[in-house]
Amino acid sequence: MAHRPPLLLIDAPSLYFRAYFGIPESAARAADGSPVNAARGFLDMLASLIRTRQPDRMVCALDHDWRPDWRVALLPSYKAHRLAPEGGEVVPDTLTPQIPVILDVLAAIGIPALGAAGYEADDVLGTLATTQPGPVEVVSGDRDLFQLVDDTRPVRLLYVGRGVANLDDCDDAAVQARYGVPADRYADFAALRGDPSDGLPGVAGVGEKTAARLVTRYGGVAEIVAALDDPDAGFAPGLRTKLTAARDYLAVAPQVVRVARDVPLPELDTALPKAPTDPDRLLALAEQWNLASPCRRLVDALAG
User: Fold this and answer.
1) Residue 237 CA: distances (Å) to CA of 7, 194, 242
2) Range(s) of the chain covered by CATH 1.10.150.20
3) CA separation for the pair 206, 197 (Å, rounded)
4) Which Pfam family, any one of them, does this sequence belong to (predicted)?
């Protein structure tokens, strides 16, 4: 049987934030002086991904709720350091107006972009990776998405820690080599280790190596916590004390880290078009926002 091209799932916020900080505003402006560095970089990333990965399907996932109430209820510190004084996420003033531009271009081309109320882009990606036919390739710079890797479907993570031109193409073996745990235990590992960028404190004194050893020996967080009540479980006294002190945190942290896989999403056509679905609209947007070159590169990539 011929190998089917992949479904490419794009973590849009991860990529457009990267584009914004990777390209100076002075290098990409519209005729009215508005910065379009994030839009230009994001579109060029998509063109590069289409050329190199040759998908036949694509979806861009959005943050309709970057800090869902249900996660905050479990762990109030979740992303609290990124909360603006007036509410909402701290986002650069010159990035916010570029997001509608990106969405308008995607709509003109015919690449679906969607989010879901009460969920993050990660959760949309997790649901699509679970429900859509494989193979699936998830593109993100978010470490939490290592948990989606599944060799049986298959689902891979194209990790953009070093940029789209230097993707880390990760299967389960790559996750184990990087962190010492299989992908299906990554959420437990991450809960133990913590992640300051998401406001996850982790267990005090437990780093990556100790977290990996715990997961390898005992299993998930629930099994580790249960083993604390067994005097013969083999914990060093100091480690037992640290884990015991973190019981309340460990009761909720895995649910916060774990990506949802059952987000209610509308029916959508994931097929990647060979040409823009609304070429006149795309031309108008390209002219308005001085995005002719990246739009042309993206259209050329679609045509193959």
Assistant:
1) 48, 21, 9
2) 183-257
3) 17
4) 5_3_exonuc
